[in-house]
TrEMBL record:
SUPFAM superfamilies: Bacterial exopeptidase dimerisation domain, Zn-dependent exopeptidases
Organism expressing this protein natively: Planococcus liqunii
Name of a matching Pfam family: M20_dimer
Spans through the membrane: none
Ranges where the Peptidase M20 dimerisation domain occurs: 179-273
Name the record gives this protein: N-acetyldiaminopimelate deacetylase
Lineage per the UniProt record: Bacteria, Bacillati, Bacillota, Bacilli, Bacillales
Amino acid sequence: MDLLKIRRELHAIPEIGFKEWKTQAYLKECLRTLPEERLEIVEWRTGLAVKVHGTNSVKTIGWRTDIDGLPITEETELPFQSEHPGFMHACGHDIHMTVALGLLTQLIQEPIANDVVILFQPAEEGPGGALPFREWLKHDQPAFLPDQIFALHIAPELPAGTVATKPGLLFANTSELFIDLQGKGGHAAYPHLTEDMAVAAASLLMQLQTIVSRNVNPMDSAVLTVGKLSAGTVQNIIAEHARLEGTIRTLNLESMLKVKKRIEAMCRAVEEAYNCRVSIDYGSSYLEVNNDEDLAEMFLQFAESDEGVKAARSEAAMTGEDFGYFTEQLPGLMFWAGVASEYGLHHAKLNPNEAVLDILPEFIHRFFKTI
C-alpha cells in the first residue's frame, strides 16, 4: 500500500460521527487490495472490524483506530486539504487510519503467531462510538472481540518517532455540557417587563467558575470550561433565550459526579433568582483511559530497546477519549505518537509530520510479535 497517498486521500474526506460513509467505502477499497483469504471483515454502522489470523494463535490482539473528523474549517493550505467545507481531520484520525492500514499490511506480509483484530471505529469525537461498538462485538461478533487492545493518538508537541505513555490513568473522564436558559424577551427600553437571559447566563457562567476552585479537592484535578455563550438576537431586544456550551474533565468518576451535582444546584438557584427555566444536557460522556499496568511497562520496555523509536514516559492528561470504554473491560494500552506539528490538536492548521507513516506500522508490528 502507498501509505502517503492513502493518508492524503483520507485527509481530503473528513466526516463526522456515524456519517463516515465515504471513509468506510475508501477503507473497504484499500482492504480489497489485500489477499481476501487472509482476512475476515464485518461491518458495524460506518465502522469495520478486520481479523487477520495468526500462525499459532493463543489469543486475539486488538488494535483500535478512530475514523471520524471534526466540524472545523481547514486552514492548512495543503494541496490535499479537505474537500468537505467546514470539516477537517484536525485530530489526526487520518494518520491513525493510515497507520492501521500499514499495520494490517505488515501482518499480511509477515504473519505473527496470534490473531489480530483491527477496529475502525466511528464517532470518537462524538457522540461516541466505542461503547456501542464494544457491546455489539460482545453480543453479535464475539469472535472479533480481542483479549487485549491497543491504540495510539498523535501528539503534535512530540518529535516524530517518539512514543510516550504511562501505566494507569492516561486520559481523563470527560463530559460535554450544554445549558439552556429560557426567560421572557422584550423591548430593551422596558427591562422590567422581561426576564433577561443574557444577564442570567452571564451570572451562571461566573458561578460555574467557582466549582473547581471551591468544590473540588485541591489535591485532585478538574476542568470546567465554558467555550461558548450565546444569547439574544439584536442589540435592542432583551434576550429571551441563552445557551452555554462547555466541557467537564476530571481524573476520577467521583469528582465528575460532584461537579455535575454542583452545576445542577447552581442552575436551580438561577431559576429562582432570574425567574426562568434552565435545562442541562451532558451530551457525550467518556470514561477515563486507564492503561493496564503490566502492558504499559511491557510496551515501554520494548520501546526503549527498539531502534526505530524513542520512548518516553508521559503524564496523565485532561484529554478525552472514548477508548476508555474498551479499557474498562479489556486489558489495554494507549500511547502518544509524536508527529511534530507546530499547531495542536483540534487546530485548523494541524499538520502532522508524515514521516511517522514509515515508522509506526513497523514498530507496532514488531511489538505485536513479542506479546
